């Protein structure tokens, strides 16, 4: 039979495609991947009511270490693995697919909207994006910053960066982990303010001008839901935002911003003049840098 990877889209239970819904309804077991994203406007019970099927929450432990449970008997019965957004949006469950293939279980994917493409709703063109990066919650003694180099690479060639923000579900405190107590902390979703502050902290440490406090950005909140909200401003503005309920992502603009993109974004800028100035400053700085590089090359010849 088939292991279906089904995208649920971004917000409401009804965002599932008709093909996805039909597949779920014929599956013997239905798992919902519940640690890389959340369906903002639906509970497990809402999904169960729509599908007429029990939904089993699949946490990281089950997907990464207990995949035999998900794949059990899938040679003989249909099993659905539901992923919020698209199954191949940002996080891919490649391990699970490889294991299914090894067991001779056919895999079929039913796609849906993902943050990776719906982000275009803010007015920035998907063609102008570079590498996507993820930002995790910093701890006092753990501040991973590999995203910094990726953002710098994107911005050096003028491209926008989609920054995905950490989600912590079913995490144990160090104390509970050390004592082997299966007590979990409440879920935490990184907001725009924290993301911007962490980005600035790393710039202050690295000082390679991957971005500055004046770099134009767009906050992407609750994309695809009725509460969707975009705010255009500088990175410093983002650190002061009250971005509200999750989920959130942040886009750091590149200097190749097209004027149509800017025109669209102005709708979301609290201070339109200041936002235009911030964008123009970056465009001008890039133009001057190009001239300087060309002159240097000429001198070398
Ligand atoms: C690891 S990615 C999973 C992406 C998902 N599979 C998809 O295709 O959309 C999860 C991160 O994407 C971002 N994200 C997902 N859905 C979002 C939404 N509706 N609005 C804003 N950001 C979102 C958040 O930063 C979240 O922490």
TrEMBL record:
Catalytic reaction(s) noted = 2-[(3S)-amino-3-carboxypropyl]-L-histidyl-[translation elongation factor 2] + 4 S-adenosyl-L-methionine = diphthine methyl ester-[translation elongation factor 2] + 4 S-adenosyl-L-homocysteine + 3 H(+)
Q: Which Gene3D superfamilies match?
A: Cobalt-precorrin-4 Transmethylase, Domain 1, Methyltransferase, Cobalt-precorrin-4 Transmethylase, Domain 2
Q: Which GO terms describe its molecular function?
A: methyltransferase activity
Q: Which residues form a coiled coil?
A: none
Q: Might you give the EC number(s) for this enzyme?
A: 2.1.1.314
Pathway, per record: Protein modification; peptidyl-diphthamide biosynthesis
- What is its EC class? transferase
Q: Name one Pfam family in it.
A: TP_methylase
Q: Can the keyword S-adenosyl-L-methionine be found in this entry's annotation?
A: yes
Q: Where is the Tetrapyrrole methylase domain?
A: 3-238
Q: Does the keyword Transferase apply?
A: yes
Q: Name one GO biological process term.
A: methylation
Q: Which domain of life is it from?
A: Eukaryota
Name the SUPFAM superfamilies on file: Tetrapyrrole methylase
Q: What does this protein do?
A: S-adenosyl-L-methionine-dependent methyltransferase that catalyzes four methylations of the modified target histidine residue in translation elongation factor 2 (EF-2), to form an intermediate called diphthine methyl ester. The four successive methylation reactions represent the second step of diphthamide biosynthesis.
Write out the similarity annotation: Belongs to the diphthine synthase family.
Which named protein is this? diphthine methyl ester synthase
């Amino acid at each position: 039979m088939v292991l279906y990877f089904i995208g649920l889209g971004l917000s409401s239970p009804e965002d599932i495609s008709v093909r996805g819904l039909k597949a779920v309804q014929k599956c013997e077991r239905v798992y919902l991947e519940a640690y890389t994203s959340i369906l903002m406007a639906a509970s497990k019970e809402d999904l169960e009511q729509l599908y007429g099927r029990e939904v089993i929450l699949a946490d990281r432990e089950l997907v990464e270490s207990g995949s035999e449970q998900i794949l059990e008997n899938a040679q003989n019965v249909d099993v659905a693995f539901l992923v919020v957004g698209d199954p191949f949006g940002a996080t891919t469950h490649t391990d699970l697919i490889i294991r299914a293939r090894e067991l001779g279980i056919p895999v079929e994917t039913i796609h849906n909207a993902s943050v990776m493409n719906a982000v275009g709703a803010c007015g920035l063109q998907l063609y102008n994006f570079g590498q996507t990066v993820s930002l995790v919650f910093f701890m006092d003694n753990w501040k991973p910053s590999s995203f910094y180099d990726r953002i710098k690479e994107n911005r050096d060639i003028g491209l926008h960066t989609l920054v995905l923000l950490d989600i912590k579900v079913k995490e144990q405190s160090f104390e509970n982990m050390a004592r082997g107590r299966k007590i979990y902390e409440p879920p935490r979703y990184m907001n725009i303010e924290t993301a911007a502050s962490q980005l600035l902290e790393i710039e202050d440490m690295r000082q390679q001008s991957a971005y500055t406090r004046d770099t134009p950005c767009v906050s992407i909140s609750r994309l695809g839901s009725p509460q969707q909200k975009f705010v255009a401003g500088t990175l410093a503005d983002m650190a002061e935002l009250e971005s509200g309920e999750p989920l959130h992502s942040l886009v750091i603009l590149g200097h190749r911003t097209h004027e149509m993109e800017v025109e669209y974004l102005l709708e979301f800028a609290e201070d339109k003049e200041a936002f235009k100035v911030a964008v123009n400053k970056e465009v001008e700085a890039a133009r001057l840098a190009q001239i300087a590089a060309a002159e240097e090359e000429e001198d070398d010849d």
